[in-house]
Each structure stands twice: as C-alpha cells, then as structure tokens.
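Record type: monomer structure entry
Structure origin: computed from sequence
Chain ID: A
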Amino acid sequence: MHETIRKKYPYLYETHLHTSQASACARDTGANMARACKEYGYTGIFVTDHNWGGNTSIDPRLDWDRWVDQFCLGYEQAKAKGDQIGLDVFFGYEAGYDGTEFLIYGIDKAWMKEHPRLRFATVEEQYTLVHEAGGLVVHAHPFREEYYIPKVRLFPEWVDGIEGINAAHHQYQGVGRDKRVFDKSAAAYGRKYHFPMSAGSDIHSVDLFGGGVAFRRKLESAQDYVRAILQNEDRVLTDGKVWYDKDGNVIG
C-alpha cells in the first residue's frame, strides 16, 4: 500500500523543520538538515525556525535588520546546500504567542525587513500582514499539550489551515500519554471548519521522522505551496509511518 501511495504522490516535502542557527531547541545546522533530508528522499523542505515569540537563539537586543539577518542564516545555509545536492529549500518560520504557534509560509527575508512591526503584532495583525504579502498562516500542532503551552487556544478566524499531522507526536507515543490524540483532535477540528491540513515532522535534528506532505507534482516555489494549500490541492499526509488523506483519515 505504501509503495502505491508513493508512486501516486512521489514529491514529498518536509514542512516543519528547525536549524541550530536560529532555534535554541535544534541540534543540527541548516546544511546538515538539508543533507539528511535529501538522503531520506525528500523533494524539498521548508525551514521554519522559531521567531522572536518562540524558542529562538537570536539575541532579542539586536536591531531589527541584524536580527533578521541572523535569523535567516539557518535557512540560507540549508538553501546553499540544497542547491548543491538537488534539494528544494524554501523559507518560512514558526511564530510563537505564549506557547501557541503558527507556521508562516510564502514570505521572505526582504519582506520581514520591511515589516519591523511583525515583532509586536497580535495574532490578528500577523494574519493581516501575512495575507497582504500573499502568504499562508497554518496553526501548528493546535491541540498539543506541553509544559511550555499554558493552554490550548484556537484562532479559527485567523488561520488559513492547520497542521493536522505532527510526526513528533507519533514518534514519542510511548512516553507518558499517547500524543497521537493531539492529531486526532486537530483533524476533527480541521474537518469541522473545513480547513486545509498539512503535515510535518517538527524536526530538530538529523534523526528524521519522515513526516510531511506529498503531492502528485513538484512544487515550483513557496508561493506555489501557498496556492496548493489554499486551493486544497490533491495531496497526502504522513507521520513517516502511516499515510493519511488530505482530511486526516488513515489510508495506508
């Protein structure tokens, strides 16, 4: 079954990946992450390091331009390595609001530099700014329960989609409670509001989980991914072991 799915959807993308250059919780550099993902068989990756509201490793005292320059180093190193080895590398980031996190796609470094008020934007303002730029806001692991998340908070009016499958929940299912329940709740939430769903590994090292979104065709750019999600294009989701349809139902 898995082989049939992969043949039908051969282009696999990691949509949730951190590098040690910008995420304090990550252990490997952008170059090493790109190399590992290429060896695994990904077509492309999105580097989504933690921003100023999350577990960033960038000094918050820096002026905005310098902060953005340093923040983008993990992505830029991954992109350079990807260009060398034939891996598509796209830019994004993970925005944090007191433990609630959003994956931002379809914007770039230049746009960030032009919008210093991002640093102080509310969830609602973030959505407006990203949309003005033609970007995408995806609620990351919306039902995750962890020590750093004071409570589950949902913003159905201020997101374009949700991360229905987070591979980290499936990797650590034997530790304490079964964390797969977080994704079951996310998928039900997505179906209720008719949100397009994505999947990613939330990976922090080269010990890959294999999660992501697979398409029938090769994506042309980050903006192409934005269009594909907003238009709910045909795709499948995976946690690296199990495959799901685009609504979060198990198919193999």
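Annotation 1: The mean pLDDT is 96.
Annotation 2: The longest strand covers residues 88-97.
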